[in-house]
Amino acid sequence: MHSGELISAYLDGELSRAEELELVVHLEGCVACRMDLADVQSARSAVRSLPILDAPGWLWPADAARRQVVRKRPAAVMAAATAALLVMVIGLATWLAPSPVLEMEYADIAVTHGARVVQDGTPTSGGLAEMATLIRGVGAE
Amino acid sequence: MRRMSIVLVLVAGLVIPVAAPALAQSLEEWLERAADAEFEGRQVTICDTPDGRLTEAVDVAQQNRVIVVRALGGEVVIRSGSVMTTGVDGATSISSVDSSSSALLADRYSSEVRGRSTVINRAVDLVEVLEGDLVRVRYAFDLNTGAVLRSDVNNGDGSLYCTTQFVEFRPNADIAVAEPSTTRELLLTALSSDVSLPTEVAGFAQLDMYEGPQGSTAAFYSDGIFSFTVIVADRKIAVSDLSDAPQVKVHDRDYVRRFSAGQVLFSWESADGGLVMIGDLPLDLQGAVLDGLPQPGATGFLLRMWRLIFR
User: Fold this and answer.
1) How many secondary structure helices (H) and strands (E) does chain A include?
2) Which CATH class is domain B187-310?
3) Collapsing DSSP states into helix, strand and coil, what is residue A75?
4) Considering the entire predicted model, what is its pTM?
5) ipTM reported for the complex, 2 dp
């Protein structure tokens, strides 16, 4: 391998440990080679310090860019559509499902309370009027 | 002068034995005597509620601690340990009650005897139940039988909430109870439940819990004067006859409320399920009690989804 190629490979970190050792020994005895290494290093540093710019339109035609976007979209779109569909299905099922409700007769509630009141002997303010509600409830069955 | 003294002593001897029991009795003793009274008559209850004035009339007879209440549509027979209701169509229910404890008069109440008066031409002892400076209840106990001939219940601001009074009254009832041909049994048996309800709410003690209607859980609370029952279910409770009941705000929370004479019912849904509270509470105590119970909570989409999936 030419020393120029070795220098580039060295700077790219592509040399094996043995090749790198050989290059370093060679550079010790080759002034021109050391100057080449310095030139390549400074050139690379200058390139890396340049700002990153968008590619000009002539370099990346519009239809090519569109094709690139179209190629990338399907996965994202499919994922979003699947998620939206899932939410819609769960939501619809939730709303369409019968809401859990416990039906109770007013009279049963009055009986439950009234019976316990009587056992307790608590003098209710309404006296026995609440029992009238109970009677109507039973009579209405 | 000596003759005058003898007359005074005799008069005092006649008057003091009659008046003395009134002064010596505690409120519990007054109420116990009322429970033992025997009578029959017609009782009217009038209540001023936010939904208007409500009136109810029933025929009542009480003997040997058996109470028979008759109204249009049937009768209710209340015995020790059971409540039996008979409707006009023969539908009947018997509720066996296994109460674990009785209410003690809450510390906030005291009582004062306010002398004698008359109600429907019968002599009565007037006894006031006081809550601080507020006269919460005014009872008129029949001098002869001990029955409560009239009671006036006040709201926290002193305004009158409900009045219950006999308009016809005859001592010494003779109760003849017809045995029902069909029965529907509702057992109120005390149970230990994992339902989380407070043991004390606004000065009302929870006396016991038992199975409520449709497999729900019921808890009974009393302060010795007023009482209420809370019914809890793990889902929304739909109570019949509440379709026209108004939705009201109590302390900025939404409830469905229905008044009847001497009784109020609230229905609502909390984050944990449905609740119903029914009782004879005056207006101010209604809000205080609701403050201490599980409050109306989020019942939206996520909660419904959660219940759909996990219940």
Assistant:
1) 6, 1
2) alpha beta
3) helix
4) 0.68
5) 0.76
